[in-house]
Amino acid sequence: MSKLSIGLLGAGRIGKVHATAIRATPRARLTAVADALPEAATEVAESAGAEVRTIDEIIDADDVDAVFIATPTDMHADLMEQAARAGKAIFCEKPIDLDVDRVRACLSIVEETGVLLMVGFNRRFDPSFHAVRGQIDAGAVGEVEMVNIISRDPEPPPIAYMGRSGGLFRDMTIHDFDIARFLLGEEPVSVSAVGSVLVDAEIGDVPDIDSAAITLVTATGKIAQISNSRRTTYGYDQRIEVHGSRGLVRAGNIHQSTIEVAGDAGFTKPPLMHFFLERYMPAYHAEVKAFVDAVLDGTPSPVTGYDGLRALMLADAALASHEQRRTIDVSP
Amino acid sequence: MSKLSIGLLGAGRIGKVHATAIRATPRARLTAVADALPEAATEVAESAGAEVRTIDEIIDADDVDAVFIATPTDMHADLMEQAARAGKAIFCEKPIDLDVDRVRACLSIVEETGVLLMVGFNRRFDPSFHAVRGQIDAGAVGEVEMVNIISRDPEPPPIAYMGRSGGLFRDMTIHDFDIARFLLGEEPVSVSAVGSVLVDAEIGDVPDIDSAAITLVTATGKIAQISNSRRTTYGYDQRIEVHGSRGLVRAGNIHQSTIEVAGDAGFTKPPLMHFFLERYMPAYHAEVKAFVDAVLDGTPSPVTGYDGLRALMLADAALASHEQRRTIDVSP
Amino acid sequence: MSKLSIGLLGAGRIGKVHATAIRATPRARLTAVADALPEAATEVAESAGAEVRTIDEIIDADDVDAVFIATPTDMHADLMEQAARAGKAIFCEKPIDLDVDRVRACLSIVEETGVLLMVGFNRRFDPSFHAVRGQIDAGAVGEVEMVNIISRDPEPPPIAYMGRSGGLFRDMTIHDFDIARFLLGEEPVSVSAVGSVLVDAEIGDVPDIDSAAITLVTATGKIAQISNSRRTTYGYDQRIEVHGSRGLVRAGNIHQSTIEVAGDAGFTKPPLMHFFLERYMPAYHAEVKAFVDAVLDGTPSPVTGYDGLRALMLADAALASHEQRRTIDVSP
Amino acid sequence: MSKLSIGLLGAGRIGKVHATAIRATPRARLTAVADALPEAATEVAESAGAEVRTIDEIIDADDVDAVFIATPTDMHADLMEQAARAGKAIFCEKPIDLDVDRVRACLSIVEETGVLLMVGFNRRFDPSFHAVRGQIDAGAVGEVEMVNIISRDPEPPPIAYMGRSGGLFRDMTIHDFDIARFLLGEEPVSVSAVGSVLVDAEIGDVPDIDSAAITLVTATGKIAQISNSRRTTYGYDQRIEVHGSRGLVRAGNIHQSTIEVAGDAGFTKPPLMHFFLERYMPAYHAEVKAFVDAVLDGTPSPVTGYDGLRALMLADAALASHEQRRTIDVSP
């Protein structure tokens, strides 16, 4: 198999991102696309020289080696099981499901089949975040001790979406939980969280929160702090820093350009890249390459189903901590 | 009274800082110095053209308008009461006392006498932190919503000191609690905290902690997060950022110089200023000026006894939260 | 004509860059590729779904609307004339020729035919440099007065190449001359230049120089300074700044990632992107799009043959100034 | 001699700066002050506990070891000669004189007397510039090859002053010539300069220029470029960078504080420190300490009369180059 033949399930916003990334991956080929909206599937398929098929056709096809699951969240687990049973390698957008038990059951089936499963925590593949991890691995900061994550969206999603999103911790913080695990290199065993409605009172009516502070602690006492908000005025704010016994490594924000204007009001740089599609586009490409390489080379999944499960468990614990006003244990 | 005549009680490390600041303040004069070690008092007095006296002589003196209390912490409250009854204006180093009830009793007596009392939370007078507060007051970030404080010392104090320091929350975080209140503009009503021993196992034997994460929430849901550590390798790490409805304002660290060296290993700036005496020297000068101006001009104290009390209450609550693994209420 | 059909003349390093950019341009299609080395042409053609043809076949083809000239420099002018006479729109890599008279003659023929000609001064299309120009146009710095350009390559080209390159001013500074004109918004009328051999004595034997300082002045006294070197150890150093009556606008370098590592040696950021292919890749894409849009929309060439001529005249004047140790007039 | 007893000649703006610096220097004492305006002398003397005397009284006094010459420029050389003959160590503000022959004659007399003479090129003592020199000395950039200096004042001096200032090159660039020599570590042997009137047409009527670009070359081909302007809107712009065979070292500007405000218009830092009294205050203190140490310790002058002479020669050559539109030789 010189090129990995991929079927894309879901041609919405994130599906299109994956289609573009697949086309830019030399070892991959987009073979087929499915979507509930025929026009969406057709648009993506045409631009990639792929066929429009149904989901079942793709999962059963002999000429498809792997599927990308980019459908609405409530279909993820069922499609994963179906694809696993058909022997396809699976790339699944996060979250696997909003229910931990459903995730466990699904992962159990996937595991039985032995297919490779990768969960779409794209931020691990951001070049700068990846370089931070590389510095840690190279010993640049010694033993990791504390992690600080600031993660602020420029705007909340539509209120209608928020009702079925699982709430801020499961929908937004889940990425930060994964990055915290990625950087700590050790499993968090407790979660303390508080949340507020500061951005939009309507979000409180969902009910959901739009601002949060979360603290994770590992068994050896390593600490991660996460700061979340659904609003900035200056672009997508995505910063990580890792303190270790020998020093600090951090990754900063990316401005829209490198220019600076100076005048009597001071020195002004442009706002940050607006949101995740701009900021993390290189990460979307890199994660597809990582998936394709792992399948073709027979190496382990770069982001496992267990990674997806643990991030969800941390989200559930954060919600419980926020509601019960106490630290929640989440030992593995 | 054209110049404020000041008596300095305590000529140790911080007493010397105040002596230097008083000499640089045009509206102030250092009249007398007391210290348990005669040589310490003499050294400071000589360089300032002041007299060496006993504490009682200074507090009772007709030619002294105000006292600076820079003695060991366990003498603060008694000296404050004595000085207040003698009608002296009082500048007292933080903390007033490690016991909240003692602080309340002391403040009650000071209040009866009507003398001006200022507590030495010097960081409020750091030029950049002051400018952050100024930007908030000017409306630059709209309504304040979230505060992030990173505060890391380059090294722990001597183990011997830690045993009588009251612990990390009362000794170190107390400054950050004050800055959080200063920036939030609203009283925190709950505290969640975790602490770890990551820097030095001996600190755990004190017992104390050397690393901590604290979350404060106000009645309207504003959130402050504090990150503390007793160790860095790169200098004194003191950063604040304030997110509001219209944007962000922050103050950064100060490097030892503005130089940058570039080579095949990259671009390197020097470490940060080493510790508080370097980093906050301008703040020490500015707080003395603020005290002197307030006394001479009859304006309110820039940092009140109540500010000292609340910071201590937040520290006590943080310790309780850490020990009980739950959020602690600290409504005023 | 919904898509511009392009023939690529030259499939070497820069030809491949253009092929990639053409494929990423929705309004363009790469139809044919020619190169003296059949394998080079085949490789580019296959990856783009284009045909391999001879140069003459491409210029004469009915199914080709425009040609990209990416051959060795000494073929540029002849191919431009041939393509112009065939009625093709022309994108030509810089320089048009190393001889000013040959450039004039060639431009005269192109002008007679009325075809659109764009010269490949790619830096104008760098997003940050473009944004600098945009700030100037928006009045952010008032009247432009002084321009400072620092342009340093990480390493010299092969000695063998330098002998036929026309020398540093015509080969390297020519880009900076164009950027100076782009930013000044006024024609330089005098040039003062000095050059040295500091990087490699072999370069002096070519003979050529590897380090230079150039000053341009316009009729109204605006000043541009250029600093050139054929060596850095920290990556490709490309900075511009523009001072005007109301302030400053500048564009900075781009590091390999946004990370920063701090320890007892200080705070270190990674080196800059290595060289032009990395640093200016977005510019190469943007210039192709600008060319395609201009041809399809019938708008003027974004970078004219006159721009190519003037940059070469400034290079010639710089060499004369360096050799004669005096300021050289280059009034248009 | 435990403390150096200093007499200050001239109590104007810069004289006051020196008086403050002398008072802050533990090994120095300000003994006497002279000024043509008695009130100016009295004000400085009173605040320092010094006496008001005449210039002659100070130079002849047995209780004065050294004089600071901070009078108008046209008195410098005469006072230097008088002080040298009286055996006083001399600190003289730049320039020694505006006429090279007068400087030579004066230095000859000073040399005969053997007194220590230091010229007030304060920028060498700026902590960051000093650290740049330290990095060069430590070999951080290898062999120095190119120096870039950007030096822009926030505003021109009064027109009345400009007529007797000797012009921009002798009044303003002279500091940059000295810094270029300080950083190059090798004597410039040629100067190329251009100047313009861009800030204020009245400056052209003086006649003088307000904007300039200067290029210096040493015997081995090292190059320094200087960019000057009498106007910024964003504060005092003082940057140096040094490129060597192994890398780059630079010193940047200093903002009024470390704060940054972010909103929909981007990220804004405050303007730079306004002008030399703010920006170079630490340098003024450090140069006084360096002078006092040299006199008391019998070490060589940190900035010699020859340094003052060479900077003036470079200024004269720059003016000649600007007027004659050619490179001027200034071999030592």
Which helices and strands, and how do they pair?
4 copies of one chain form a homotetramer.
Chain A: E1 4-9, H1 13-23, E2 28-34, H2 38-48, E3 51-52, H3 55-60, E4 66-69, H4 73-85, E5 89-92, H5 100-113, E6 117-119, H6 127-137, E7 144-152, H7 159-162, H8 168-184, E8 188-196, H9 201-205, E9 211-218, E10 223-229, E11 237-244, E12 248-251, E13 259-263, E14 266-269, H10 276-279, H11 281-297, H12 305-324, E15 328-329
Parallel strand pairs in A: 1-2, 1-4, 2-3, 4-5, 5-6, 7-10
Antiparallel strand pairs in A: 7-11, 8-9, 8-15, 9-10, 11-12, 13-14
Task: Provide a compact summary of the structure.
Chain A is α/β, with parallel strands linked by helices. Chain A is built from twelve helices and 15 strands. In chain A, α1 (13-23) crosses α11, α4 runs parallel beside α5 and α8 packs across α12.
